[in-house]
Amino acid sequence: MSDFRFALRVYYEDTDAAGIVYYANYLRFMERARTEWLEALGFPLAAFEAAHGVMFAVTRAEIDFLRPARLNDRLDVTVAPRAVRGARLDVAQEIHRGDESLVRGLIVLACVDVARLRPARIPRVLAERLQVSRP
Amino acid sequence: MSDFRFALRVYYEDTDAAGIVYYANYLRFMERARTEWLEALGFPLAAFEAAHGVMFAVTRAEIDFLRPARLNDRLDVTVAPRAVRGARLDVAQEIHRGDESLVRGLIVLACVDVARLRPARIPRVLAERLQVSRP
Amino acid sequence: MSDFRFALRVYYEDTDAAGIVYYANYLRFMERARTEWLEALGFPLAAFEAAHGVMFAVTRAEIDFLRPARLNDRLDVTVAPRAVRGARLDVAQEIHRGDESLVRGLIVLACVDVARLRPARIPRVLAERLQVSRP
Amino acid sequence: MSDFRFALRVYYEDTDAAGIVYYANYLRFMERARTEWLEALGFPLAAFEAAHGVMFAVTRAEIDFLRPARLNDRLDVTVAPRAVRGARLDVAQEIHRGDESLVRGLIVLACVDVARLRPARIPRVLAERLQVSRP
Q1: Count of alpha carbons within 13 Å of B121, Cβ hemisphere only?
Q2: Is residue B134 part of a domain?
Q3: Residue D135 domain-assigned?
Q4: B23-57 pLDDT, tens digit each
Q5: What residues pair up with B15 in beta bridges, in sequence order?
Q6: Which end of chain C is more exposed for a tag (fewer CB within 10 A), N or C?
Q7: Burial class (CB within 10 angstroms; exposed 0-12, middle 13-18, buried 19+) of D106
Q8: D88 lies in a domain?
Q9: Is the pLDDT of residue C105 over 90?
């Protein structure tokens, strides 16, 4: 199964005075892609929170900045689930410009009960849908 | 009475690929200054909202971008109330680099009842404190 | 001729603790729409700067914030040229959610010679293409 | 020797609709602290780039988001060099609210020759100043 892929363009707002995308903004791009990925899986953010009383929070990010993106670049951001266990969801993300890999990340998400602000098991309907391949 | 003055520095995050501060970010600088100004007047944001059940929302902004600010610049942002009437507060703001005026704005704020999300008269204790000079 | 229209979605990054889009971020949305509009007119940003040695800078913005946009909203941002004269280009922009008008702005742009950082006449090929309707 | 410490306040611009600081914005806070730290060491960003023809780029970030920061919080961001070798500088950073640790990060920086955009040995005058403690 191929990874989910989200396309975006780099605007002035994303760049900095070094002429490249500001490093924190790649994390914005990754979050946009995760939102669209969940929606494509059938779990639009607002409806998901309303139906299950949970949201996702990032608890850890490991990001490798390999090559810079520049103004007007068209980028693809991929999302691939790597592990689902209890309240924890690990996703691998990558930002590409054509064939070049620019940024690679591993994002650890925690499913959080919105009312109590405590970790909550990922709803089964989503966990099953994530289809994490197992060896 | 001299205007309230808030100092800040320009970081990479504030700039864009044109080598200057991205235009929308001056509005961030202005909002930081308004927050510090209210706090200096004795109305820290969180306490003010908790005590009076109101917050301020920007309803109009007129901004003149005169000269660009650059990476590492030290800027001053001023705030001067211009008019207070009912739920409406007009403030004039200016961003300086030393003696140079870089950006000038008129910001119209509406006092909003947080629970009902409707305009609400500016609390008298603040209105009196604003000390708008009258001719 | 109908206005140019650019669609976007509101992500967490665009919102603030008041649960709505942070006011400065509407200016980002407007700039994205202007970039796509110029590209749709046949003037992709990078190529335009390379070919003519000019770029556009915002010199004035008048923005009315009528109603707030919220997380996950799908918005349309329109661009309509209002006046072209010498180095100056005025555009009207509006941000809609369906039939509702949320934000309205008048943006004044200056065409700037990149090498000398001084105002420069808008290249004729673009000025003609802007097709500003005249009464 | 105690770590370098930079104080900041959380404004609306830093938060998101979940009522907390947006995750990517902690990386902005960390970069502000690194800039002030270099300046405090005697290496103001602009002068350093002009004098040595080099700048720093982030090549890897490992961030643990432990607890959320909220609107109006006053935070401290620390910077502590961990390793200096050739073109590479590792720094540990932590974001505190009083005694609470909110975010912890390891940031890997590469010293880059600005003209050639290639890794360059960290200038000796800075490398010596970093005073990385060795066991």
Answers
A1: 6
A2: no
A3: no
A4: 999 999 999 999 999 999 999 988 888 999 999 99
A5: B21
A6: C
A7: middle
A8: yes
A9: yes
